Amino acid sequence: MSNLSSRAQQLASFDRLLTIMDELRAQCPWDKKQTTESLRHLTIEETFELSDAILEGNPEEIKKELGDILLHIVFYAKIGSENNHFDISTLIDSLCEKLVRRHPHIYGDTKVDDEEEVKQNWEKIKLKEKGNTSVLGGVPKSLPALIKSMRIQEKARGVGFDWEEKQQVWEKVEEEMQEFKEEFNASLDTEINKEKATAEFGDLLFSLINYARFIDINPEEALERTNLKFIKRFQYLEDAARESGKSLANMSLAEMDIYWNEAKKQ
């Protein structure tokens, strides 16, 4: 039997959530106290928890975390209605109108050949809507640097400012790597210019992120998967050392390497 609901059931469930939100806001001391400002950091936390669930590939956890984010959306809408700013209906209507505007190939006469043209049209329409003087004006300032780099490159590509071939991008990576190596050679025991090294390293990272985009790899996801892999192996190392009655602090690197190589086989 399918776990999917009918449209009527979906609407009934959403109506129930709105009713519960009304009741909580009116009766629960904690919910009555919340503001958009107090909810903000909780929403960020819930978003990261959803990200974890997606990376783990756990559908049940994804469902749970999406529910938490939906609660926050409904909560913000409730507060908005109390302040006569907006409510869930005007919020959804605004979203629907935006989706229609930004999909002229579906709801208008615009013709597109592929996904890339859809993305380019989206960025052009978005730029016009927001009235930004810069294509990059819509990139949130508080985004983590790696994600911000991705969005900057995607937006520049949306108006045609991009490399033509991935080989060109890889050549840029090699160029940046060579420049960094020549300036800050690890084999030379000389003091480096920290500011210049930081700038050059940033250029190298930017070019690697660019190449990842060209070969359809999400660098944020790739790095996080490596983080999780390292954590898993390091914790195996800790557990194995503990079971042997040893402490990592008192072990040599050669001893730790034995357990690390075992962890790589797990």
Descriptive overview:
- This protein has 266 residues and is mainly α.
- It has helices spanning 7-27, 29-33, 36-56, 59-82, 88-101, 104-107, 115-130, 145-158, 166-183, 194-214, 219-243, 253-264.
- Helix 8 packs across helix 10.
- It is extended and about 65 Å long.
- The model has no long low-confidence stretch (mean pLDDT 90).
CATH superfamily caption of the domain at 7-92? MazG-like
Structural class estimated from helices and strands: mainly alpha
CATH architecture field of the domain at 7-92: Orthogonal Bundle
Could you tell me the radius of gyration in angstroms? 25 Å
* Helicity range: over 70%
Distance between the termini: 37 Å
- Give the oligomeric state of the chains in this entry, treating copies of one chain as homo and distinct chains as hetero: single chain
Indicate the mean pLDDT: 90
Count, helices: 12
- Coarse shape: extended
Under CATH, the topology of the domain at 7-92 can be stated as Helix Hairpins
Helices and strands, in order, run as HHHHHHHHHHHH
Quickly name the level 1 CATH class of the domain at 7-92.
Mainly Alpha
Largest sheet: none
The unreliable regions are: none
Number of strands: 0
The percentage of residues in β strands lies in under 5%
Write a concise keyword list for the protein shown above:
266 residues, mainly alpha, Helix Hairpins, 12 helices, 73% helix, extended
